[in-house]
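Structure (tokenized):
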């Protein structure tokens, strides 16, 4: 990988700024739905909590299944068409909630929303990798991810105000309009040319691109272990905060989120200056230690400290993972790599709360945090082994041929 100094272009180009603001708008809309949709399901629609949960998570099913196909289309048709189409579809489907009156209809809309999510998310990550100067992809992904965190953090606050003032319709209209803003910004973004586009390389009219990017699978294993730990902690930390007597349970999640954002700002270039797999392994080890502290925490102070340690690990984890994925991927295969990598996000975030919930029910939340720590620890061990295997392969084979 080239050093950051090797890049002659600026990271903060108008297109990079447009993509970052685009993501902020899109994830503000997502944050609004995170707050509004469950309340809408149990309120006007009249569903129970189980129905609300199914409605909320239904989009992940279609998103997971379609991400590889979104990656293939992103490599064949380009990033911008899928970003625009995904945001426009998200806007239309969000406004469809205004027409729903049954939980079945809400679930159907959410399932369709997974199509928009797959297209927008995969193409957006590939576009970021295209826009980043050589050797600064980790920095680009780290800084851009702040838009995602801000959107998901601020969206629920906006939704609460809108619902209080004008009801659920106002929240859905606001989310739909934000998706339209995202679509407009995507349309205004100039997609950089890919130097290896052409016959046989994944460009338009070429042979079909990969559905699953095989080289992305190995680092995904360790990454999923970290997501199991972090998503399980997020799912149960508020409950545990109440159990240990925390006066303000939301302080735990606030500490976690603030730490992630702080790490992404202050250590944005670390995955470019240090081998990304090494940073990934370090993030997993930090996550493991933080989850163990959370398991041992018998009072508020230690649980808040654990949230900060876990936030440090997560702050390192995702940029290092995507920097690893995109480090030596040809531009014509970045869509496939982004599709495979984002499937790992779906699996980790989806399985973590379920797995830890199965442990917490009979054994308690501290036992569940221990399981999360074990998942992150095993991910760290796997990643260290992967570093060794890739280093040995590079030593044995010609450049570019190592698996």
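Design, position by position:
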């Amino acid at each position: 990988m080239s050093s950051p100094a090797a890049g002659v272009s600026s990271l903060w180009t108008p297109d990079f700024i447009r993509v970052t603001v685009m993501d902020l708008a899109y994830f503000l809309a997502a944050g609004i739905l995170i707050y509004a949709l469950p309340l809408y399901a149990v309120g006007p629609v009249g569903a129970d909590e189980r129905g609300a949960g199914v409605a909320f998570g239904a989009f992940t099913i279609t998103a997971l299944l379609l991400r590889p196909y979104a990656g293939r289309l992103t490599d064949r048709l380009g990033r911008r068409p899928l970003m625009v189409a995904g945001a426009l579809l998200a806007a239309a489907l969000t406004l469809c909630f205004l027409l729903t009156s049954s939980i079945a209809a809400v679930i159907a809309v959410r399932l369709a929303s997974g199509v928009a999510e797959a297209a927008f998310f995969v193409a957006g990550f590939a576009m970021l990798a295209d826009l980043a100067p050589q050797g600064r992809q980790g920095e680009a992904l780290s800084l851009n991810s702040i838009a995602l965190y801000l959107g998901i953090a601020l969206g629920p606050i906006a939704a609460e105000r809108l619902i209080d003032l004008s009801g659920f319709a106002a929240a859905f209209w606001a989310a739909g309009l934000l998706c339209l803003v995202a679509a407009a910004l995507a349309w205004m973004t100039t997609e950089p040319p890919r130097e290896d586009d052409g016959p046989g390389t994944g460009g338009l009219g070429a042979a079909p691109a990969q559905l699953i990017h095989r080289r992305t699978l190995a680092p995904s294993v360790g990454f999923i272990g970290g997501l199991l730990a972090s998503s399980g902690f997020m799912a149960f930390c508020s409950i545990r905060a109440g159990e240990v007597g925390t006066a303000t349970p939301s302080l735990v999640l606030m500490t976690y989120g603030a730490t992630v954002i702080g790490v992404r700002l202050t250590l944005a270039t670390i995955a470019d200056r240090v081998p990304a797999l090494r940073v990934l392994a370090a993030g997993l080890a930090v996550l493991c230690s933080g989850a163990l502290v959370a398991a041992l925490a018998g009072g508020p102070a230690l649980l808040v400290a654990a949230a900060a340690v876990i936030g440090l690990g997560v702050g390192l984890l995702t940029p290092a993972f995507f920097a690893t994925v995109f480090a030596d991927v040809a531009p014509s295969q970045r869509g496939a790599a982004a599709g495979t990598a984002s499937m790992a996000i779906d699996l980790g975030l989806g399985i973590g709360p379920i797995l830890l919930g199965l442990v917490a029910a009979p054994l308690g939340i501290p036992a569940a945090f221990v399981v999360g720590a074990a998942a992150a620890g095993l991910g760290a061990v796997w990643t260290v082994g992967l570093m060794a295997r890739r280093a040995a392969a590079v030593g044995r084979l010609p450049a570019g041929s190592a698996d």
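Reviewer-requested clarification: Residues 256 and 402 are 37 Å apart (CA to CA). Confidence is low (pLDDT under 50) at residues 1-8, 197-208, 399-403.
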